[in-house]
Amino acid sequence: MKRAAVFAHYDKDNIIDDYVVYYLKALKQICKNVIFVSCGELQIEEKEKLNGIADYIIAERHDEYDFGSYKRGFLYLKNNGLLNQVDELIFANDSCYGPLFPLENIFAQMEASQVDFWGITRNRFGMTFAKPKNIVCVRPHIQSYFLVFDKKVFTAGCFSEFFENVKTESTKDAVVIKYEIGLSELLAKNGFSSDVYIKDYYRFNHVVLSLWRQLITKSKSPFLKCSVIRLANRNLTTIAGWEDVIKKYTNYPVELIKNNQARTKVYDFNPLKLPKWMKIFCFNTMSVLPGILKRKASCIVKNYIPWIMD
Predict the structure, then answer these.
(1) Residues 165-199: tens digit of each pLDDT
(2) Alpha-carbon torsion, ordered 10, 116, 172, 20, to 10 deg
(3) How far apart are alpha carbons 97 and 102 in whole angstroms?
(4) Contact of 160 with 144, CB cutoff 8 Å
(5) 94 with 9: CB under 8 angstroms?
(6) What is the CA radius of gyration of the chain?
(7) Which of 174, 167, 199 lies closest to 67, judged by CA?
(8) Contacts of 220 (CB under 8 A, 6+ apart)
């Protein structure tokens, strides 16, 4: 199976971090072409980190989030006739540490499912535009941090039209509604079949954040969301003991995560030293609550008891 990958990158310091290089090397092992698209200008020494890994680099500010990078990489492949040379197209981004487990095994399993496109996880809930704010509703969609498309999909007219019309949106919610949710719904509407690698926990929302431990230890998820380790989701989960989880269940070099966390974490404080088991128990309990109760509990944690985090 010949593949091409478009990798979307963004870094506040315009750095290609070591965990990104690690990820790209794994992609290169299974791909004929790797197109690296950064939403930012990169210095020559940063681009040189990708020598022998990326086949082409696009680095320009576009403010269209990951789908803007996917668009640019896809159009480069299309306009240069490279899509004719591959059977599958991968869209991936730098919002995850990984792969924690070999990609080859995952692709072998998903190839057996014989679907037209797939991802790692599917969210059952999404949003719809409504005033005064977006409304949460049931809108199943494959999460866009890792997507794989069969040739019949990425050569379809509806696919090209969709990405050619990606533009800057006013909010991140709008990006999710129009592009992440919109892509899954568009492809389903056009008769393309789909599946996900991890089917567990589908009835819950935000599983890649609130249930990241279970995804790794029980479902062998190949990715861990960076925002979890950066403490951006401290109202949904705790990272207590995260190093132990990675070391016990995977061969991933934890230093890559620790070095990136030190530079990019969005929250820093000295929490009370609650027992690790208590933190994990509290958040695991909260993660399986019905949607309305979970949102209320998350709000309480975020605003009133931040000392439960670490």
Answers:
(1) 999 998 888 999 999 999 999 999 999 999 999 99
(2) -20
(3) 13
(4) no
(5) yes
(6) 19
(7) 167
(8) 100, 101, 249
What per-residue string of b and e applies to 270-287 under the rule 16 or more CB within 10 Å gives b? eeeeeeeeebeebbeebb
Do 69 and 41 contact (CB within 8 A), yes or no? no
Chain segment 14-23, per-residue pLDDT in tens: 999 999 999 9
The amino acid at 109: Q
Closest by Cα among 136, 132, 98, 80 to 7: 98
Q: Crossing angle of helices 291-304/276-287, nearest 10°?
A: 140
**How far is 5 from 149, CA to CA, in rounded Å?**
10
- The pTM of the full predicted model, rounded to 2 decimals, is 0.87
Q: Name the phi and psi angles at 84, rounded to 5.
A: -70, -15
Give the pLDDT confidence of 207-251 residue by residue, as tens digits: 899 899 999 999 999 999 999 999 887 777 889 899 999 999 999
Domain ranges within the chain, ordered by starting residue: 3-196, 207-308
List the one residue out of 136, 289, 265 whose CA is nearest residue 204. Answer: 289
Give the C-alpha distances (Å, rounded to integers) separating 84 from 36, 61, 74. Answer: 19, 28, 12
Q: Which fold has domain 3-196?
A: Spore Coat Polysaccharide Biosynthesis Protein SpsA; Chain A (3.90.550)
Mean pLDDT of all residues in the chain? 89
